[in-house]
Design a protein that fits this description.
The protein is an alpha+beta fold and 142 residues long. It is 35% helix and 27% strand. The protein is built from 3 helices and 6 strands. The protein has helices at 2-24, 63-72, 125-140, and strands at 42-46, 49-55, 77-80, 86-91, 98-106, 109-116. It has a 6-stranded antiparallel β-sheet with strand order 1-2-6-5-4-3, with helices on one face. A hairpin with a 5-residue loop joins strand 3 and strand 4 (86-91). The radius of gyration is 18 Å and the shape is elongated. It starts with a helix and ends with a helix.
Length: 142
C-alpha cells in the first residue's frame, strides 16, 4: 500500500514543483527589450520560437494597432511595459511555462519575435501562435 501511495504521490509532487518553478522563475529583463534577428523579410523558424518580418509597405497603416489588440486578447497573455516596442508574456496551460513575444518596427518592417524562456523546444507553439495572429490580422484587414 505504501508503494502505491509513493508511486502516485511522487509524480504529483514533481508536477507541482515544475509548475511552481515555471511560474516563479524570473524572466531576464533583456528579453523584453532585445531585437533579435534575422532581419530579412519572411517567416523564420528558430529552435524554441519563430520570427516574422513583414514589410510595412505591404500592410495597411493601422496594422500594428490591430495586431496589438489581437495579441492582448490572447488567453494567458500579459503585456510588459517597455521603452521600445511591445513585449508580452504568454503562459502555457497547466504548468504555465512562459513564452516572450516582442513586436517592434525597424527599417520599414514589422518584426514579431516569439520565443520560449524555459527549455529547448516549444514544439512549434510560438510559430503556430504568431501564425494564428497573422491570419486573424489579415482577416480583420479585409
Amino acid at each position: 500500500m505504501k508503494l502505491i501511495l509513493i508511486l502516485i504521490a511522487a509524480p504529483v509532487i514533481l508536477a507541482c514543483a515544475v509548475a511552481i518553478y515555471a511560474r516563479l522563475t524570473p524572466i531576464d529583463a533583456d528579453r523584453f527589450t532585445s531585437t533579435p534577428g534575422p532581419d530579412v523579410v519572411g517567416v523564420h523558424k528558430m529552435p524554441g520560437g519563430a520570427k516574422y518580418v513583414l514589410p510595412l509597405s505591404d500592410l495597411p497603416k493601422d496594422t500594428v494597432a490591430k495586431l496589438l489588440d489581437i495579441v492582448r486578447q490572447t488567453p494567458r497573455t500579459t503585456e510588459v511595459a517597455t521603452d521600445t516596442g511591445n513585449s508580452f508574456v504568454t503562459r502555457s496551460r497547466g504548468f504555465g511555462f512562459p513564452d516572450v513575444t516582442r513586436i517592434w518596427l525597424e527599417d520599414d518592417n514589422l518584426h514579431i519575435h516569439a520565443h520560449l524562456v524555459i527549455g529547448k523546444s516549444d514544439l512549434g507553439v510560438n510559430r503556430d501562435r504568431v501564425g494564428q495572429w497573422n491570419e486573424t490580422l489579415r482577416g480583420s484587414l479585409r
